[in-house]
């Protein structure tokens, strides 16, 4: 599986677009999971990059986390409100794994507190999902064309231009 650090090194263009859009949207993304009946579910979430890993964490016992516990596949999409997509757009696909490491959870909680003031220090996390990235894509619109960048593990980014 591919960590955030490995992904960013292998797909720097997509990683840069994702990081820029993630920051511009107040760290908000849209998470796609699979419901128990097989239909897709879209949920807002604020993924975090911490210690070279992308983490999908949030309020415990929500439907999106029950979905991931049952089926670890996901798609994460940068929140886009600009119909012209001037700042680009990115999607990451992957699978999650629940990481049971109390020391890591506490380092994460301290970082979260220092970053946004949310104090979860000393608490235990029911779900703590590391996101392993299995593929990614991004679009950038520039004038009269759109560049679509695609990446899969073991390959370089591939850019296609559409006019």
TrEMBL record:
Keywords of the record: Oxidoreductase
Single Gene Ontology MF annotation: coenzyme F420 binding
Residues of the Pyridoxamine 5'-phosphate oxidase N-terminal domain: 27-113
Alphabetized InterPro entries for the sequence: F420H2_bilvrd_red/Heme_oxyg, Pyridox_Oxase_N, Split_barrel_FMN-bd
GO CC annotation terms, alphabetical: cytosol
Name of the protein in its database record: Pyridoxamine 5'-phosphate oxidase N-terminal domain-containing protein
Organism of derivation: Planosporangium mesophilum
